[in-house]
Design goal:
Length: 259
């Protein structure tokens, strides 16, 4: 029996190379695969290059308030038509990419098909965006938009919270998920028109820790910005609780609707 075991060990002249290979794999494990396609290695714990290339990243020109792309390059800093006529309580909102094509599918997997591992990978996109936009590093708190407890129980996690973790780590902060809570079970926003979306989220949130907010600059994190109704209502309460400024960063945003 002992002879059989010994015969399976590497020969003496291969011992060091065998040991070195084991240590290398332990200290530097093989790169993880892209959690979307499982065909290529992920980049910095995020998506693979081919899946990243499918995203329609947002570049200027965009609305200086909500961050939605503008069709024509303005001569000066410009608000979109929606922001000109709507009171929004956040200072400014920005998004990484358009809520179209591949990103729509990625977020659908994250939200509705129980793919929590996508939260880490997609959250790395927020990190890279903030690396390139240092103004958004000037925050004291990172707060994800909360979901109602009933939806949290059904889904198993808050997708905005998963997106926020990589960014909070990069900024050296802890995600504050027990400051702002959702107390009203609202209808799904994507089934409502623009006016009804604002009415739907009115008084949907509550601040349960005002001392954590007072005098602080808050960075709100969500997955998608459409009309801005949800993040604006959250920003209104945070400002009322004493926050000095509220900015918003989302993974995706829609285009300006014709109406």
């Amino acid at each position: 029996m002992t002879k059989n075991i010994i015969s399976k060990l590497p020969k003496k002249n291969n011992w060091l190379s065998w040991l070195g290979a084991g240590l290398t794999e332990l200290l530097f494990p093989p790169g993880q695969l892209c959690p979307v396609c499982f065909q290529e290695h992920s980049l910095q714990k995020g998506l693979g290059q081919q899946c990243l290339n499918k995203l329609m990243l947002i570049t200027e020109p965009y609305c200086i308030k909500c961050g939605k792309p503008l069709r024509l390059h303005p001569q000066f800093n410009q608000l979109c038509k929606q922001c000109e006529t709507t009171e929004l309580f956040f200072e400014k909102a920005r998004a990484v990419a358009l809520y179209e094509g591949a990103l729509r599918e990625y977020l659908a997997d994250l939200k509705y098909r129980f793919r929590p591992e996508l939260g880490q990978a997609l959250g790395e996109l927020l990190v890279e965006w903030v690396r390139a936009n240092p103004d958004f590093r000037k925050a004291d708190l990172v707060i994800p938009i909360p979901v109602h407890p009933h939806k949290l129980a059904a889904r198993g996690y808050n997708q905005a919270e998963l997106l926020a973790y990589p960014l909070a780590d990069y900024l050296g902060m802890v995600v504050k998920n027990r400051v702002l809570v959702r107390t009203k079970l609202t209808e799904t926003q994507n089934s409502l028109n623009r006016v009804d979306r604002f009415l739907n989220v009115k008084n949907a949130f509550e601040i349960i820790n005002t001392s954590a907010v007072s005098g602080r600059r808050v960075l709100l994190i969500d997955d998608i910005l459409t009309t801005g109704a949800t993040v604006s209502e959250a920003a209104r309460l945070l400002l009322k609780a004493g926050a000095t400024e509220v900015n918003v960063l989302t993974l995706a945003t829609g285009i300006i609707e014709p109406d």
